Amino acid sequence: MNRLLWVTEHYPPVKGGMAVSCARIVRGLRRRGIPLDLLALGGAHEPIEVRPTDGGADLRIRRERSPEVAPNLAWSLVRERHLAAPYSAVVSFGASKAGFVGATFAAWLSLPGVVMVRGNDLDRDWFLPRRGGWVREALARAAAIGAVSTEKAERIERLYPGKCVVWTPNGVDSSRWELLAADERRRDEIRSVLNGGSRRICGLFGELKFKKRIPFWLEAVRDAGLLSRIALLVAGQLDEDTTRILDDPAIAPRSLRLPFLPQAELPALYSACDFVAIPSAFEGMPNVLLEAAACGAVPLVSDAGAMRDIVEDGVTGFVFRAENRSAAGEAARRAMELGDDELAAMSATIRARIRANFSPEREIDTILALIGQVAR
Q1: How many domains does the chain have?
Q2: Are residues 163 and 179 in the same domain?
Q3: Which CA distances in Å does 269 have to 56, 202, 297?
Q4: Please, how many CA atoms are within 13 Å of residue 202, restricted to the half-sphere of its CB?
Q5: Residue 1's pLDDT is what?
């Protein structure tokens, strides 16, 4: 396999789950010795920034007020680098803007294109006028498609019969989530504050925007009569509706709220939780789910996106139908009825499953197998 051109609009210092996933995968490919140029459509201070790395370079293109400027600058740079040392394939991390740019460059370079479909590509961008056009063009031109959930793979196959579509799940390095002594002290402090001895602690993490459906889930918990049995550890960014509900003790459990925190502080928070709740209406494959489960938090999740690929109801967590309030309340009730020994056993089971089935090595193996089907 010659050099790859990897195209993304989500890469640090850009924030968010996709940027985290993209950085992890690129590091993994480079550790395997895969020559790779990363083309990041954003995050640059200058119009063009070239940062050499082992086996390639990070190519950063600044977003400009005129939207056509950045892709043309990127094309000039990519064309010159391809002439100097040819690429074997173009991989787009994301099927909207990155997918459209990657599909265009692959065609102009006469190369096969691979598109990695994440979460919002089909759930959100497909239905937006401009971004929907980007997604459709990227998927139509792709020689191979990777999807972050089996559910998304099925939907893509129905839209594009005959396409090579492969499930390419995320990975998590469980060793990075082992607790240090300071983490254990912080964990115990949080559990003490939230009265973990008599309440089950549920974690809510990340950018808790509308699609995460936190108000919906809190209503389900209230309807199930569980407010006095649950405490919430909330770390991240809340929308106005969620904040308003949490501020009212008559309709929300006791909570401890923290801002976004560096990754180094998250093991203590995850391990302080008995459960991690992700009641999303639609999803990709949340890094939060893998990370929290690697720390032993038992998932309490909807069946959106890849969450049903990770969690087996009643065995490694609790799964309910997305947007079904009675099902969400029933799942929460079943979770609260677990005894301490049962909870500990389920926690150990989900940790073992994450370690066995969602390792970084398996993630990279799957992606390389997908690219290998079409790369020269």
Answers
A1: 2
A2: no
A3: 37, 11, 10
A4: 27
A5: 63
Confidence class for position 45, pLDDT limits 50, 70, 90: confident
| pLDDT tens-place string over residues 119-157 | 889 999 999 999 999 999 999 999 999 999 999 999 999
What tokens appear for 273 in the block? Answer: 């939780």
Helix (H, G, I), strand (E, B) or coil at 365: helix
Give the Cα separation of 62 and 295 in Å (integer): 37
Please tell me whether residues 122 and 193 are part of one structural domain.
no
Judge if 15 and 88 occupy the same domain: yes
Rounded to 5 degrees, φ, ψ at 87 are -85, 155
Beta bridge partners of 91: 6, 114
Same domain, 167 and 178: no
Q: Please state, in angstroms and rounded to a whole number, the distance separating the CA atoms of residues 170 and 309.
A: 11
Q: Are residues 27 and 71 in the same domain?
A: yes
Residues 6+ apart with CB under 8 A from 250: none
Range of the domain at 197: 174-357
Is residue 34 domain-shared with residue 148, that is, in the same domain?
yes
Q: Report pLDDT digits (tens) over 316-361.
A: 999 999 999 999 999 999 999 999 999 999 999 999 999 999 999 9
Torsion angles phi and psi, residue 318, rounded to 5? -135, 130
The string of pLDDT tens digits covering residues 161-196 is 999 999 999 999 999 899 999 999 999 999 999 986
> Which CATH number do you get for residue 132?
3.40.50.2000
